[in-house]
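User: Could you go from structure to sequence for me? I need the amino acid at each position, not a summary. Structure tokens:
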């Protein structure tokens, strides 16, 4: 067998801390990769700041979708191309199995045409004009009613124009990447991942007229807490939570940097939607 050609590409490996299998796969992949690229470092955790400082060409993330999302958020404005190797459950964003990554190693590391550019969001929560929390979002910001589980009233403004006040369980603001997450379950639209847009989807609105909106990526969305419950929370990517009080304002806009995600070259772009979420599957009539 011919010896694999070594590339000068700089690669960093991160393994999900809550995935015991990821640590085992990490050691295997680092050994496999050392003769094929410049392995800059490897760690167990979600903090990719060291990888960003090293100006790596790829960050290989071992875990599930949640691991990959946490790593992307940690990069902030120093986004690097991410390769998700799935050792979790669904693996919708983490497209590669271990076997597939090893088979496609040279392409995944070296072919920049496989890098998809995806919109990220900037989320800030303010109270009385002072910012309480700021975060990057890969998937979404969800404002959810929380205990004691009465309907909440939220005001919605876009680009400074007051659009409406809605009563219900909350609201979702998501990226096209996040359109197949909570937004999908709430009846929002499925977006092609590289579309430059932002989706606003009401959660169980007490109205027949409050429907999902697809906005241009330059839109600035403000959601004001008109009347909320004690447990009402702004939740970012299902991982970061910020409690909300009456009068708080959540502002969502496009983040200046974009997520860079390496696509699995073995499958067409819509493969995961059709096979993992089973979109368009016909009923099995007898």
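Assistant: Here is the amino acid at each position, in order:
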């Amino acid at each position: 067998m011919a010896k694999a050609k070594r590339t000068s590409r700089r690669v960093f490996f991160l393994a999900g801390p809550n995935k015991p299998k990821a640590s085992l796969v990490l050691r295997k992949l680092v050994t496999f990769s050392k003769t094929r690229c410049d392995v800059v470092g490897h760690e167990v955790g979600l903090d990719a700041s060291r990888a960003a400082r090293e100006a790596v060409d790829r960050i290989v993330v071992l875990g599930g979708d949640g691991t990959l999302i946490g790593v992307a958020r940690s990069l902030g404005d120093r986004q690097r191309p991410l390769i998700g190797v799935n050792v979790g459950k669904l693996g919708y964003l983490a497209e590669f199995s271990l076997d597939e990554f090893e088979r496609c190693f040279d392409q995944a590391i070296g072919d920049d045409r496989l890098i998809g550019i995806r919109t990220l969001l900037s989320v800030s929560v303010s109270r009385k004009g002072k910012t309480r929390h700021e975060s990057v979002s890969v998937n979404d910001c969800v404002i959810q009613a929380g205990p004691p589980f009465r309907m909440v009233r939220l005001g919605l403004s876009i680009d400074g124009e007051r659009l409406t006040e809605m009563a219900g369980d909350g609201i979702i603001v998501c990226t096209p990447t996040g359109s197949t997450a909570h937004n999908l379950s709430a009846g929002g639209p499925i977006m092609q991942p590289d579309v430059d847009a932002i989706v606003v989807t009401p959660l169980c609105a007490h109205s027949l007229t409050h429907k999902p909106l697809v906005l241009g990526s330059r839109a600035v969305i403000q959601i004001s807490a008109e009347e909320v419950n004690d447990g009402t929370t702004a939740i970012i990517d299902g991982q970061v939570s910020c409690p909300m009080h009456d009068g708080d304002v959540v502002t969502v806009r496009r983040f200046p940097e974009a997520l860079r995600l390496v696509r699995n070259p073995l499958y067409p772009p819509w493969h995961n939607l059709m096979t993992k979420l089973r979109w368009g599957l016909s009923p099995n009539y007898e």
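One structural detail worth keeping in mind: Residues 117 and 260 are 5 Å apart (CA to CA).
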